[in-house]
Amino acid sequence: MVALGITLHVHDLSVEYDSFTALDGLDFSIKARDFVALIGPNGAGKSSLLRCIGRLLKPARGTVYLDSRELHKIPLPDTAKLISVVPQDTAVDFDFSVEEIVAMGRYPYLKRFQKETSRDREIIRRAMEAVGIAGLAGKAVTDLSGGERQRVIIARALAQEPELLLLDEPTANLDINFQMEFLELARRLNRAKGTTIIAAIHDLNLALQFFDTFILLAEKKILSFGKPEEVLTAENIYRAYGTHAVIQRNPLHGKLTVTVLKRDMPEGKQESSSGTRIHVIGGGEEAVPVLSALWEAGFQLSVGPVTREDSSYRFASCYHLPVITLPPFSPVSDHFHRQHLAMIEKARAVVVPPIPFGPGNLRNLQAVEEVISHRFTVVILEEKPFAGRDYCGGKAVEVYERIKEKGALVTKSVDDLLAICKDLYPIGYRKQ
Length: 432
Known about the structure:
By secondary structure, the chain is α/β, with parallel strands linked by helices. It has helices spanning about 45-55, 75-80, 100-105, 120-130, 145-160, 175-195, 205-210, 230, 235-240, 290-295, 310-320, 335-345, 360-370, 395-405, 415-425; strands spanning about 10-15, 20-30, 35-40, 60-65, 70, 85, 165-170, 195-200, 215-220, 220-225, 245-250, 255-260, 275-280, 300-305, 325, 350, 375-380, 410. It folds into 2 domains: about 10-205, Rossmann fold (3-Layer(aba) Sandwich); about 270-425, NAD(P)-binding Rossmann-like Domain (Rossmann fold, 3-Layer(aba) Sandwich), CATH 3.40.50.720. It has a 6-stranded mixed beta sheet, sandwiched between helices. Strands 15-14-13-16-17-18 form a 6-stranded parallel beta sheet, sandwiched between helices. Helix 13 (about 360-370) links the parallel strand 16 and strand 17 (about 375-380). Helix 10 packs parallel to helix 15 (about 415-425) and helix 12 crosses helix 13 (about 360-370). The termini are far apart.
């Protein structure tokens, strides 16, 4: 049977530890059957908030409401039927068996000295099976690994059959496979049984694959609340975590992904540096490893022409590189060809990555042929025979052969490409 779910209202909530304020004046509401990720940097107050909602910590100020009832006025036995908490710390000091620990989830439903009914035992069994520990039922919990112990605590929470499930870093001690399995289980509970779920979670990309609503805590307050697209913006991530990031959609599942940029990357001031400019032509997934390796080595880069959907464009956007941007699905027109030639003229070297060439981008290779006799070096990365990249009836191979005749260097690997560039321009790296 699908539960109606429970709504949560937090009003003016503040948490203090002695003279330290952990949370200050939080206000938000979560609808019944919401699936919520609670995110924020270490020390943002995620655990404190969950402990307040779970009635494990008394707030310094403010009120928590379950539906229309004040949480602290609900009898504790009734609260235990409504709310279940999976804490960060899963230490168990007594050698109870796994089944005994999971059975503790049924205590709110039993009278004093009452034994579990057949229904209780069935719920306990299903909870253990759900998290993959049924085979450990008779084993002492003190003999388990950290990940196994975490599964036991999760099973105990499931056996409690709560309407509101609070998870504090539930995947912290779990291997990558069970992280996915557990979050899929949590989502099924939310969708099939109507359980309202709030989970504090550090892994933003993992959270983005599963959760519908996000609460971002920072500086003792709620920085942002809402859908993933509203909360996880580059600006919000910088304000909360102090790091630059790029947000884009994963082509495999369509969900947002967060890519954190290195702290030593510049913020759009590349032109003022005196490093060597290397222009990487074209685009596509094959060009990204080349761009990354050259950038890591310290060279200034420019890129293009590429469309906004291209992986190379995303790389250029991440690191504020000069890039020629084509309209979607457009060949290289005279206008963009002239722009390309002008960008090449600013470089000291041109790199042709192992990208395919067709009628739409053949002009990028032809641009290299037009200017190769000038003052800079051309390096072609040919990891596989060039003919396998020619999708314009042999025309690309013809241009490629002429470029080689005019003195282009050909290399077989990214490492060799880097060695050539460093040898040619030993003092030309970007200032760090």
